[in-house]
From TrEMBL:
Transmembrane segments: none
Stored InterPro entries: FecR, Ferrdict_sens_TM
Protein name: FecR domain-containing protein
Boundaries of every FecR protein domain copy: 100-188
Top-level taxon in the UniProt lineage: Bacteria
GO molecular function: sigma factor antagonist activity
Amino acid sequence: MSDWHDDELERMQEALRPLRYQSRRAELEARLEPRGPVRMPAWKHYAIAAAVLVSVGVSAAAYVYQHSPGWAIASTEGEVSLNWGSRFTRVLRSGEGLETAAGQVQLRVGSIGALTIGKNSRIRLVEASPNQQTVSLEHGEIRASILAPPRQFQVLTPAAKAVDLGCAYTLKVDRDGNGHLEVTMGWVSFEDRGRQSFIPVGAACRTRKGLGPGTPYYLDAEPGLINALEQVDFSAQPAERLAARKTLLPLARRRDALTLWHLLSRGTPDERGMTVDRLTALAPLPPGVTREAILRLEPDALQRLWDGMNLGPGAWWKLWGFTPPPAPVVRR
């Protein structure tokens, strides 16, 4: 019995022998022996260097973009199209534009005011520097509220340039490039190729692409005067312009001397004569100013006529360092 058990035990030990504990120290020590330096393939070096350069370039570009001059986007409402940079930083940079569909945008014009972009409008920021803020309105509507020295804020349109003289106004431009401006505070100068229209609070002015600014008029003027003025400003037919002038002159009030002053340089000598006569019927000429000097469009006479008829607040213009309106440029 004992011999059988001994034989069985030996067989079991033999069967389990492969599973016995074996030290692997020698094998592990061999694996941990120092080896020679591992060489990285050359292409990996180039790949890493390229990645570093790209990262540095992107970071530099982002820094320059974020610190370049621009107007802060104060708020957006509805559908507005902005590029990725403006959408991310909430700043519109020089050279960038935006377009509204059913929405609107309010921009901060540096530290001098605000600009609201209405629906279905397209603008582009032209310049945003400490001394000059300029935006281009291709079409649509903007509302500006600015408190700054004259000429620091300007809006370019296809027909004329609106130059801020410290004011608030609404400017609309249709898809043909024609515009309409209404001033709610201060004064605006509408300019194109030397021709200027000076528009005070409560007044408006139209523009036509290729013809420039029309003649300013007060919004409470006689409707017949306002309608006739459009023919005077933009009709291609001399007979129509003459007939329209004859229609509007009797409708002019003393307050409408602003309109008549601008009309002096817009028309034929005969049309200028009838305009001077209507002006003198509304108010006498200032001392030292003659009818003949006005007919000759002498700058000093026109300037003294402007001041003598109290057409504009020249005092605060001078306070800002801005010269009151010069002699109009004749262009027909």
